[in-house]
Design a protein that fits this description.
By secondary structure, the protein is an alpha/beta fold. The protein has helices at residues 45-49, 86-94, 108-115, 131-136, 155-160, 173-188, 191-199, 225-236, 261-267, 287-292, 310-318, 349-353, 369-389, 426-434, 462-473; strands at 10-11, 39-40, 77-80, 98-101, 120-123, 142-145, 164-166, 217-221, 240-244, 256-257, 270-273, 297-301, 322-327, 358-360, 414-421, 438-447, 450-458, 478-484. 29% of the residues lie in helices and 18% in strands. The structure holds nicotinamide-adenine-dinucleotide and (2R)-2-hydroxypentanedioic acid.
Length: 485
């Protein structure tokens, strides 16, 4: 590749017979396509030096990191659903990508239509990326969950089709913990009921069954990012904290881990759930667990709607055994805002709405300006790194692979990314293909059935890149090949 390749557009060679040659587009199958009009370019080094490019940066050695792109930015199609924060939109639009933004989620059929030609999709908790939806996503290379939970995505299907998934593991944890602290006091003081009464014009000054939280015991189920933040805040209000987790974890402050869920339930005055949605956490709080809770205790669920058996909770509250509850999440949640919290959505919605001292919120645990803007930056940055450089650090369904950036001092390099089935013999065959070139650095890792290889090769010409691509594509274990340069 001539040095001028850095500064001018290059026409892509076409095969005479019109077969696939080296069209460059950000397709799942790299990068190499057939359009006679397609050209690619690398940014000029001066752009970064003048600070006019948001993406050019320096490596730790001071060299200008090279922007790896086998495609034109405007060809990268991104669909952002569920009101992803402006910070994330700015980063993606700043790259020059085509970004379509919608405030709500989409019903499955519309989603299947829309997802057909996008390369990147950004969602929050409402968009279900099932295997049926993903099967229609022929160009998709990466999914950004602008939230913590990734249960809405078929992670296994995505990985086996070479689609990388990123999330934001803790940017909204503090917001959830603060909401739960607020709910503990609100339940102890029956604040929701008093406020509703006043809204209806009723003055009802009572102290019966209203409590201070000082000296009460908080039981946290799932002592991860949210549970441990909550632990610190609760202790600072004078509460005793116990927690139950499947992993043995050090408690913050004076918090103590208890060996069984039943022990936590029978000891705590307030029980709060912070576990992920998993087969093992489905209806984790059901009739037996509610019966095991102390008479007059309180339940909070801001994790996932599948964790609490709601009809059982309704019974326990009607019986007066549970004195109050706060729910932020539900088995079925609407795609957007509106008058949807009815029996049509969940068959017990009216029962819930009739209960006293029950705080119902529309999945707002992580909905603060601070959390959403931090998540926007974190996930959009991960998407840009993946699209432009193939870096998977932070991915939730792929091995984490990264190489130091190529620099502008290395003009004739290409980065080969080969996502493949994790079976014996593939690496030998890949290295036979790469072996005709100088492999400067290489990293490979596997996760379950999928392996991810990244290699930087030097002194490659356009025709070498096309050849490498074709040979890698011909391997039967190939899932996705991308070559970035
Ligand atoms: N309401 C909201 O807006 C909101 C916001 C953020 C997260 N969430 C939900 O909260 C969940 C927890 O978030 P996090 O960031 O604390 O997650 P995390 O992964 O940091 O912690 C989860 C903890 O649960 C434990 N765990 C898993 N299975 C368990 C089981 N069967 N029994 C006991 N413990 C178990 C894990 O070991 C881990 O320590 C998320 O998965 C997400 O679904 C909701
Ligand atoms: O913002 C959302 O939709 C999801 C919030 C929360 O449940 C999460 O998983 O981070």
């Amino acid at each position: 590749m001539p040095a001028s390749a850095l500064t001018e557009n290059i026409k892509i060679p076409q095969k005479q017979n019109g077969e696939n040659s080296v069209r460059r587009e950000v397709s799942r199958s790299l990068s190499i396509s057939t359009s006679p009009h397609d050209a690619f370019h690398h940014r000029q080094p001066s752009m970064g030096l003048e600070g006019s490019s948001p993406t050019l940066r320096r490596t730790t050695t001071g060299a200008v990191a090279k922007q790896l792109k086998p495609f034109r930015e405007q060809d990268v199609k991104i669909l952002l659903l569920e009101n992803v924060n402006q910070t994330g939109r700015d980063i993606l639009q700043g790259q020059g990508y085509q970004v379509e933004f919608l405030k709500s989620s989409l019903p499955e059929d519309q989603l299947i239509e829309k997802i057909k030609d996008v390369h990147v999709i950004g969602i929050r908790s409402k968009t279900k990326l099932t295997s049926r939806v993903l099967a229609a996503a022929k160009n998709l290379i990466v999914i950004g969950c602008f939230c913590i939970g990734t249960n809405q995505v078929d992670l296994q299907y995505a990985a086996s089709h070479g689609i990388c998934v990123f999330n934001s593991p803790f940017s909204n944890s503090r917001s959830v913990a603060e909401l739960v602290i607020c709910e503990i006091i609100a339940l102890a003081r029956q604040l929701g009921d008093r406020s509703n009464e006043m809204h209806r014009g009723t003055w009802n000054k009572v102290s019966a069954k209203c409590w201070e939280v000082r000296g009460k015991t908080l039981g946290i189920i799932g002592y991860g990012h949210i549970g441990s933040q909550l632990s610190v805040l609760a202790e600072s209000m004078g509460m005793d904290v116990i927690y139950y987790d499947v992993v043995n974890l050090m408690g913050m402050g004076n918090a103590r881990q208890v060996p069984s869920l039943d022990q936590l339930l029978s000891t705590a005055d307030f029980v709060t759930c912070h576990v992920p949605e998993l087969p093992e956490t489905m209806n984790m709080i059901s009739k037996h667990q509610l019966d095991t809770m102390k008479q007059g205790s309180y339940l909070i669920n801001a994790s996932r709607g599948s964790v609490v058996d709601i009809p059982a909770l309704v019974d326990a509250m009607r019986a007066g055994h549970i004195a109050g509850a706060a729910l932020d999440v539900y088995p079925a949640e609407p795609a957007g805002n509106g008058d949807y919290f009815t029996n049509e959505l969940n068959p017990w919605a009216e029962d819930l709405r009739s209960l006293k001292n029950l705080i119902l919120t529309p999945h707002i645990g992580g909905s603060t300006e601070e959390a959403q803007s931090a998540i926007g930056v974190e996930v959009a940055d991960a998407l840009v790194r993946y699209v432009n450089e193939g870096v998977t650090v932070g991915a939730v369904n792929m091995p984490e692979v990264s190489l130091r950036s190529l620099t502008m001092d290395e003009p004739n390099h290409a980065r080969v990314i080969f996502i493949h089935q994790n079976v014996p013999g593939v690496l030998r065959r890949v290295n036979e293909i790469l072996g005709d070139h100088n492999v400067d650095k290489q990293m490979t890792d596997s996760r379950g059935d999928v392996a991810y290889l990244m290699a930087d090769v030097s002194s490659v010409r356009d025709e070498d890149i096309a050849q490498l691509y074709r040979e890698l594509e011909s391997l039967k274990e190939r899932i996705i090949t991308r070559i970035l340069y």
